[in-house]
Specification:
Blueprint (H helix, E strand, L loop, with lengths): L1 E6 L19 E2 L2 E2 H11 L4 E6 L3 H8 L8 E6 L6 H8 L8 E5 L2 E3 L1 H9 L5 E6 L7 E6 L2 E7 L8 E9 L4 H5 L9 H6 L2 H4 L2 E4 L4 E3 L6 H8 L6 E2 L2 E2 L4 E3 L2 E3 L4 E2 L4 E3 L2 E3 L4 E2 L4 E2 L3 E3 L4 E2 L4 E3 L2 E2 L4 E2 L4 E3 L2 E2 L4 E2 L4 E2 L2 E7 L2 E8 L2 E2 L4 E2 L4 E2 L4 E2 L4 E2 L4 E2 L2 E2 L4 E2 L1
Parallel strand pairs: 1-4, 1-6, 4-5, 8-12, 14-17, 15-18, 16-19, 17-20, 18-21, 19-22, 20-23, 21-24, 22-25, 23-26, 24-27, 25-28, 26-29, 27-30, 28-31, 29-34, 30-35, 34-37, 35-38, 36-39, 37-40, 38-41
Antiparallel strand pairs: 2-3, 6-11, 7-13, 8-11, 9-10, 32-33
Helix pairs in contact: 1-4
Length: 397
């Protein structure tokens, strides 16, 4: 059986963290989201994979290449224009060779159990569904027995909390429905299926496996925390005497954790990092490759991407730090309840910190209020307090 992974989207609601990569290449637990998807498929014997790529496709194709490193055989189809997931699936049609196939969204964290549950429950067209606290951002389904009898993409009013995860099994003949469409504007799989639900007899599968989606920057924290459960424990770097480690901790080759540090897992630290001395790193934190964290800093439940430099006496709580961020001493980014505006909506969040885009430079003694989203390539001068959102390349003095 083949699988089609739809990985062409831009992930605009996750900006600034998708400025230089598609959503599926955002690292959680120090691996791209797409890696977990490929791993889940391969673990279930689904090794023939077609990836539909588009936005920043080189980052995907260079990472996965032909798939052999991941135990798979990967082919690529390019979606040149953002015409939606139905169009992306139609483009993959010629490579499916007339057999039933899986379709998987390329930007959701999943595990092998979810794919196993789908494969074990296939009965004609089949869809994996899940419960969501934010169903209005997805396709909401109505189920009778184990059959889907209604499907509405991003409903205006609440009609339940069971959503379409974007993971399907389709018999071979259904690809003809997708290929027969005229794509003049964006069309999603959910929108196309909604009109066909009564006649298709789609089976709903509620999996015991893991499924998690990041819609907005603050969602990355929970996805990252869940991804850490997939990682094992291993110390390949140098841990100096006087370091205390508890729980599941992974430290990459070439990394030095200096004396006096306290690390409480699950935590993963990449390769070539320099941590400490006297740094506290608490659970649900991942630190990318080449990261430096100065003495007497505190990091809790954070996602820090590669090549960031965090100065001494910094406090980071439930924050997302992009690639190449440079923060001088004394950055204070605590987490708390806050109100955030994004995507023309207002969100009341309970416990989030700062979100700082790639290559931003932060001066000394800067305070960033909870929920703030700082764009890429910004400059924030010494002693400034930032509250709210900053566009890319903003300068705050």
């Amino acid at each position: 059986m083949k699988a089609v992974i739809l990985a062409a989207g831009e992930g605009t609601r996750l900006r600034p963290f998708t400025m230089s990569r598609p959503k599926g290449m955002i690292p959680v637990g120090n691996r791209p989201i797409l890696e977990y998807i490929v791993e889940a498929l391969v673990s279930n014997g689904v090794k023939d994979i077609i990836m539909v790529v588009g936005y920043r496709r080189d980052t995907i194709m260079l990472h996965f290449q032909d798939g052999k490193r991941f135990g798979a055989s990967i082919e690529y189809v390019v979606q040149e224009k953002p015409l939606g997931t139905a169009h992306a699936l139609a483009l993959a049609g010629p490579k499916l060779n007339g057999s039933g196939f899986l379709t998987v969204a390329g930007d959701n964290l999943i595990d092998a159990q979810l794919i196993s549950d789908l494969l074990g429950s296939m009965n004609g067209p089949t869809m994996v569904v899940a419960e969501s606290e934010n169903p209005s951002k997805y396709g909401v389904v109505k189920i009778e027995g184990n059959r889907i009898v209604g499907l509405v993409e991003k409903p205006d009013s609440r009609m339940g909390n069971i959503i379409n995860t974007g993971i399907y099994y389709f018999p071979d003949h259904l690809i003809d429905i997708f290929r027969s469409q005229v794509f003049g504007k964006e069309l999603g799989i959910t929108q196309l299926l909604a009109a066909l639900v009564p006649g298709l007899g789609i089976t709903a599968v509620k999996s015991k496996g893991r499924w998690n989606d990041a819609v907005y920057p603050w969602d990355l924290l929970n996805v990252n925390a869940q991804a850490l459960d997939f990682n094992g424990q291993g110390i390949k770097g140098t841990v100096e005497p006087g370091v205390i480690m508890k729980g599941q901790v992974a430290i990459g080759a070439g990394t030095r954790v200096r004396s006096g540090c306290y690390i409480e897992g699950p935590v993963t630290i990449g390769e070539g990092c320099d941590i400490g001395p006297n740094v506290v790193v608490l659970a649900s934190t991942s630190i990318g490759n080449g990261v430096q964290i100065g003495p007497f800093s505190y990091v809790s439940h954070c996602l820090i991407m590669s090549n960031a430099v965090i100065g001494s006496h910094t406090h980071l709580s439930r924050s997302v730090i992009g690639d190449g961020v440079r923060a001088n001493a004394g950055l204070f980014a605590p987490s708390d309840a806050c109100i955030v505006r994004a995507d023309r909506e207002v969100f009341q969040l309970t416990d989030v910190g700062a979100h700082i885009g790639q290559d931003t430079n932060v001066g000394s003694r800067v305070v960033i209020s909870p929920g703030s989203v700082i764009g890429a390539d910004c400059r924030i001068d010494d002693g400034v307090r930032v509250s709210g959102n900053l566009e890319n390349k903003s300068v705050v003095v």
